[in-house]
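Deliverable D2.4 — example input (structure tokens):
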């Protein structure tokens, strides 16, 4: 245990044909040194963090994935095998393979545990954004560009341009999503309607069948959905049960998060 081994007074290298000898006191010093490392670990253990981590694992209804690079990877693999032997759904996830597509094995029900001594392992830092859920990277509450379907388009230009989403999210009084109206819709409406745009409402021109996603979906899944045919989009409204709007996830936000 520990990064630095204890200083031991080991016998010199034996001559050819001789066996190396070790006495009882040397072995006892080794055991005491390891015991000190263990005691140091438990004395400095943050019980609140350990409790939170343990509770998260106990509450998991999916698979617990462990990942790491080098020696940390061996530890992660061993722990996953131990949990499997106890009847717990667990698996080792190679971080390099995960970055090349295996991250798709994770679902919103799973937990990913990363092992790293330094906390700066490049493969793991690149993996973290891919393992985030939509709810971890979405905009919410006051960040949302919301309006009502009866609002005039020209009255909502500030809302359309000030939130950095490139769209308006059209909702009813109970915050159910009705549709979306983008800056592209604004340009097309202006070109087609001319001065009549001053009398048009957002509800008349909005897209009432936008692509959406749930808060527990993986962020990488959101990016795939944005890029899917027939044409790519720059954002996805985030909805929960009964089509209630709770957030928005944007392509710019995903790129900023490291995807």
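Example output (designed residues):
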């Amino acid at each position: 245990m520990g990064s630095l081994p204890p200083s031991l007074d080991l016998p010199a290298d034996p001559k050819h044909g001789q066996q190396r000898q070790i006495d009882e006191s040397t072995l006892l010093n080794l055991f005491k040194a390891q015991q000190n490392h263990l005691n140091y670990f438990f004395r400095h253990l943050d019980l609140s963090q350990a409790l939170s981590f343990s509770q998260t694992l106990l509450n998991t209804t999916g698979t617990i994935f462990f990942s790491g690079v080098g020696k940390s990877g061996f530890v992660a693999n061993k722990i996953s095998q131990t949990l499997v032997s106890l009847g717990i759904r667990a698996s080792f996830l190679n971080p390099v393979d995960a970055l090349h597509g295996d991250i798709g094995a994770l679902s919103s029900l799973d937990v990913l545990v990363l092992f790293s001594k330094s906390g700066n392992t490049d493969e793991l830092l690149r993996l973290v954004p891919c393992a985030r859920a939509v709810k971890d990277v979405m905009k919410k509450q006051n960040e949302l560009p919301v309006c009502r379907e009866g609002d005039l388009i020209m009255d909502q230009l500030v809302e359309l341009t000030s939130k950095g989403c490139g769209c308006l999210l059209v909702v009813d009084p109970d915050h159910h999503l009705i549709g979306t109206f983008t800056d592209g819709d604004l340009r097309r409406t202006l070109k087609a309607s001319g001065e009549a745009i001053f009398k048009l409402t957002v509800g008349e021109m909005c897209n009432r069948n936008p692509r959406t996603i749930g808060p527990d979906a993986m962020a990488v899944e959101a990016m795939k959905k944005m890029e899917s045919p027939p044409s790519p989009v720059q954002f996805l409204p985030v909805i929960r049960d009964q089509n209630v709007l709770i957030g928005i996830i944007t392509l710019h936000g995903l790129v900023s998060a490291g995807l």
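The chain has a mean pLDDT of 89.
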